[in-house]
Amino acid sequence: MNVFLNHIDGEWTACQSGRTFDNVNPADAGDLVGRFQSSSAVDAQAAVAAAAAAFAGWKKTPVGKRAAVLNRAADHLEANADSIAAELTREEGKALALARDEVLRSAQTLRFYAVEGQTFTGEVFPNDDPDQLVYSQREPLGVVTVIAPWNFPVSIPARKIAPALVTGNTVVFKPSSEAPLSGYRLAEALIKAGLPKGVLNFITGSAAEIGAAITEAPPVRAISFTGSSRAGEQIHRAVPMTTRTQMELGGKNPLIVMEDADLDRAVDLTIKGGFSLSGQACTGTSRVLVAESVKAAYTERLLAKVATLKVGSGMTAGMDLGPLASHKQLETVLRYIEIGKSEATLLCGGERLTGGDFDKGFYVAPTVFTDVTQPMRIAREEIFGPVIAILGFTDYADAIAKANDTEYGLAAAIVTSNPRYIHHFATDIEAGTVKVNRTTTGNLVNAPFGGLKRSSTSTFRESGRTGLEFYTQIKTVYRGA
């Protein structure tokens, strides 16, 4: 059995307590992927201290050398994409092809910030004194804590860590305990690329044990977190006023199908957005709002397409849905399905899959509910599984009102060919990511990403050039002759 260590102050080391936890394959719970350190607050404090001690030296390292580290790490990810992807699928469950795409996308992210970080500078300001130069300069913050989720365990931490490092910050990185191996491989790539000791510290363990130590400690100047709204809000409330927070949280993302929509296209977008990652994407489609005039026809086509979907291990060619990532997630999704059965009309799915290889893993049939109304829990609460709720609407105004009637505002999409709807949708919808005739999932490496309302702190955006702003502070300098 492979035992994986923390990386603190330049050394791979076991946690001081000697305790570990097991990471299992969600497609086969009897398959032990690896054993990881069950760290305590003492280990976390050591990681923060190491990052704080390394900050002065890394801050002074020329940006070209910092960028070169990112490029070498990208080389490592690309050279090992197949093996890292296989491990990602084994511990998280997504299709092997999607896992490989994630690894390569993460390499692309590292290269993007290696370039953009070298041109992210201050400004020179005109003034009336010919003997005075006024300019701003951007400086790193210090120690940054990165807490990543399990659904994109390489790409999400990559888009947090890369801009943090290239701007001169040091990092404490905690991956999800449901997918720690993928985070380990990302950290390994960066460390092998030549990071000095203490610049990147990797630590595993439960949030209950180490969360406060890596978020509330005085040396921590910024926290970038992706996860549930509840956990993000707890962190946001607990940290000092001087600590920046970047929280990307939950979603209840609508796909609006207008009366003029291409219904086959709408069905394809529904399937891709709601089921391709077994519903385990923060931007996944969980609500489909359909014009009453086409609701019956849309539903018929959707059910026909869902009936063809193949559920199985991510290692199986041609599969459409993999397992849920953990037994805990399985229980959550099944609980919401039971809630849905008491609220709305179940059209398909609605059960855990059993028999054969299904008995080994955490599989749920793709599930569709109809006759869903706004007050229902399955219309309002994030499920994070392969469950879609269909709601009807009368006209565009009704669709927008229902789509916006949520505490979340992460992603939203509309299917239409009407120029008027297209023109108004981006303004009318309350979401940070807006799609027209595209699925709610997916975002570009070079474009900003983030939500509104309880989906985000709505302060600093991730991804794109804008993603560098969170990790820097501005000084304004007045220099006389």
Automatic annotation (TrEMBL):
<dbReference type="GO" id="GO:0004030">
    <property type="term" value="F:aldehyde dehydrogenase [NAD(P)+] activity"/>
</dbReference>
<feature type="active site">
    <location>
        <position position="248"/>
    </location>
</feature>
<dbReference type="InterPro" id="IPR029510">
    <property type="entry name" value="Ald_DH_CS_GLU"/>
</dbReference>
<keyword id="KW-0175">Coiled coil</keyword>
<dbReference type="Pfam" id="PF00171">
    <property type="entry name" value="Aldedh"/>
</dbReference>
<dbReference type="InterPro" id="IPR016160">
    <property type="entry name" value="Ald_DH_CS_CYS"/>
</dbReference>
<dbReference type="InterPro" id="IPR015590">
    <property type="entry name" value="Aldehyde_DH_dom"/>
</dbReference>
<protein>
    <submittedName>
        <fullName>Aldehyde dehydrogenase, thermostable</fullName>
        <ecNumber>1.2.1.5</ecNumber>
    </submittedName>
</protein>
<dbReference type="InterPro" id="IPR016162">
    <property type="entry name" value="Ald_DH_N"/>
</dbReference>
<keyword id="KW-0560">Oxidoreductase</keyword>
<dbReference type="InterPro" id="IPR016163">
    <property type="entry name" value="Ald_DH_C"/>
</dbReference>
<feature type="domain" description="Aldehyde dehydrogenase">
    <location>
        <begin position="12"/>
        <end position="477"/>
    </location>
</feature>
<comment type="similarity">
    <text>Belongs to the aldehyde dehydrogenase family.</text>
</comment>
<feature type="coiled-coil region">
    <location>
        <begin position="67"/>
        <end position="94"/>
    </location>
</feature>
<dbReference type="InterPro" id="IPR016161">
    <property type="entry name" value="Ald_DH/histidinol_DH"/>
</dbReference>
